[in-house]
Amino acid sequence: MTLNLADVSTEYSKDKDLKKDDVIMFMTWVNKQPHLPEINELQAILFLQCCYYRNEMAKTVIDNFFTVRTHCPEFFRERNAMVKTVNAAMDLAIFTTLPKKTPEGYTIFFVKLMDTNPNKFILAEELKCLDMICLLHLHQEGTSPGHVIIYDMTGANFGHLARLGPLTIKKTLYYLQEAMPLRLKGLHFFNIVPFIDKVFALMRPFMKKELMNKFYMHNSVDDLLNFIPRDCLPADYGGTADPVLVLHEQMKTKMRDNTPFFAWEETQTVDESARPGKPKSVNDIFGVEGTFKKLELD
After folding, report:
1. Which of 37, 59, 38 is nearest to 47 (CA)?
2. What are 106-158's pLDDT values in tens digits?
3. What is the C-alpha to C-alpha distance for residues 111 and 230, in angstroms, rounded to an integer?
4. Pick from 202, 212, 152: which is nearest to 176 by CA?
5. pLDDT, tens digit, for every residue of 191-231?
């Protein structure tokens, strides 16, 4: 199985704070845990680097990562770009990595609806696609000093709001804050819609202060330019990158070409029966699904 992973020697050469001895020590610890899957050196690098080389924090994050991925099949199973549900999600929205990084060297992930029919919108499937491009990028391009997610809300309507499940949002924000090996520097919503306050009200209970400080809402792309230079953006926004549809088609092809990577990812799960102490369930992590009251949209 060919995975086309980033070269670990390049990771050491581009980051003077990354020490091979620390990486090997961390990888050895993970691979001795009876409930965790075996990881490779690149994965050890990704988790240590995202935690700013803090070993104990990296241990917690990588355990959270594999635990969430085991207990949330709606996001982390059938991650195959040839599968009908993933294809439908990719036809509904644009997901891509922008080729040019910010002046700080941050990687930019871009999201935008293409098909604005809310009846076709399934939040978990769209978030699955976003995670697929993020994890593929991390494993093929390696570490980055930071990551930024930008979402053009053009085309979002009130019907989409009605399809935002609180439990899905809770799971996503937990994963983003506690498990995903990103150095998230910003989450930017631009061309915001009139009901953005209701979207934020759904997210806020599950956001830590650190994420709140990285969450931005912009009325227009011009406001976004205070954070992201225009030349980093697609041509549709006056930038130097290809138009978003071209970038999206390239990403769809890349996801299909990397089917073996996503198949390998799905094998990396937690064995709860072997976890030291008490096994974890989805309710231990997120609470009982039934505790969420029906969303009222006044």
Report:
1. 59
2. 999 999 999 999 999 999 999 999 999 999 999 999 999 999 999 999 999 99
3. 16
4. 212
5. 999 999 999 999 999 999 999 999 999 999 999 999 999 99
CA-CA-CA-CA torsion for 75, 76, 77, 82, nearest 10 degrees?
Answer: 80
pLDDT > 70: what percent of the chain? 96
> 127-140: buried (b, 16+ CB within 10 Å) or exposed (e) per residue?
bbbbbbbbbbbbbb
C-alpha to C-alpha distance for 3 and 26, rounded to whole angstroms: 22
Question: Is the confidence at residue 296, as pLDDT, over 70?
Answer: no
pTM: 0.93
Instruction: Count CB neighbours of 281 within 10 A.
Output: 10
* Residues whose CB falls within 8 Å of the CB of residue 83, separated by 6 or more in sequence, listed in order: none
| Residues 84, 78: Cα–Cα separation, whole Å | 10
Cα torsion through 187, 211, 268, 124, rounded to 10: -60
Residue ranges in 53-122 assigned as alpha helix (H): 55-71, 73-76, 84-92
User: What is the CB-side half-sphere exposure of residue 143 using CA atoms within 13 A?
Assistant: 26
Length of the chain: 298
Helix (H) or strand (E) holding 168: helix 166-178
